[in-house]
Amino acid sequence: SAVISQKPSRDICQRGTSLTIQCQVDSQVTMMFWYRQQPGQSLTLIATANQGSEATYESGFVIDKFPISRPNLTFSTLTVSNMSPEDSSIYLCSVETEGEQYFGPGTRLTVT
Amino acid sequence: GQSLEQPSEVTAVEGAIVQINCTYQTSGFYGLSWYQQHDGGAPTFLSYNALDGLEETGRFSSFLSRSDSYGYLLLQELQMKDSASYFCAVRDRGSGNTGKLIFGQGTTLQVKP
After folding, report:
1. CB pair distance less than 8 Å for B100 and A92
2. Residues facing B13 on adjacent strands
3. pLDDT tens digit sequence for A56-65
4. Residue B100 and residue A45: Cβ atoms within 8 Å?
5. Per the CB < 8 Å rule, is B101 touching A42?
6. B106 conformational bin, left if phi > 0, alpha if psi -120 to 50, beta if neither
7. How many whole angstroms separate alpha carbon B99 and alpha carbon A103?
8. Whole-number Å distance between alpha carbons of B65 and B5
9. Residue B93's beta-bridge partner residues?
């Protein structure tokens, strides 16, 4: 299994600012995934982060808006840049280990 | 492209059995997973089917028919704590077993006394 923590758990931010979300895993993993879950909606993959290489972004998500860092095998950050109210969502990181995917508790972001 | 369909809402009473269906269309297929998410919580893994048939884990079972592109999650002896959203998810072909998942829209299960 994997235990994942995220910081902050929630935040309220002003339009035009940026927020960096941290994700820490209790074991080394090759890939980490960042998802977005808008209110009442399903999970949508933003990007896949490998240690030592640039993240791979899904259609509709770009690096300028969602820069990701992956400095080592247990940590990653996702930045939500130049925020607008449409970015209000829960952001979750996840990892796969032993065939199962584990999710962090999420960061609930509200943009005003 | 990939798409998954599941009912948006299901209601059942305590002690009953409920089945949540999921049909999928994918360019490739490596397996069907099920996740449970309580309001305000993180999704938690329930089950994974890579091959046809039924997988049983306690009160929960999951079924897959690859030829029909169909699966279901069966919840038995429902309890109030089972009230949650349930998501089916498939692995994307391009990622193989790297963990990239495509999620359905989720089914909200309400268990009534």
Report:
1. no
2. B112
3. 999 999 999 9
4. yes
5. no
6. left
7. 12
8. 15
9. none
Query: What confidence score (pLDDT) does residue B87 get?
Result: 97
Report yes or no: A82 and A76 within 8 Å, Cβ to Cβ. Answer: no
Can you tell me whether residue A19 is helix, strand or coil? strand
Work out the number of other CB atoms within 10 angstroms of the CB of residue B112. 11
Amino acid sitting at position A64:
D
Q: CB neighbours (10 Å) of residue B56?
A: 12
Contact B46, B56 (CB under 8 A): no
The CA distance from B5 to the nearest CA of chain A, in Å, is: 12
Answer for the pair B109, A106: CB distance below 8 angstroms, yes or no.
no
| Environment class of A49 (CB within 10 Å of its CB; exposed 0-12, middle 13-18, buried 19+) | buried
The per-residue pLDDT for range B21-78, each reduced to its tens digit, is 999 998 777 789 999 999 989 999 999 998 999 999 899 999 999 999 999 999 999 9
Residue type (1 letter), A30: T
> Measuring CA to CA, how many Å separate A92 from each of A1, A89, B34, B57?
17, 10, 17, 26
| The length of chain B, given as a count of residues | 113
Shortest Cα–Cα distance, B42 to chain A (Å): 5
Amino acid at B43: P
Give B97's contacts (C-beta < 8 A, 6+ positions apart): A99, B30, B91
8 A C-beta contact, residue A103 and residue A94: yes
Residue A65: what pLDDT?
97
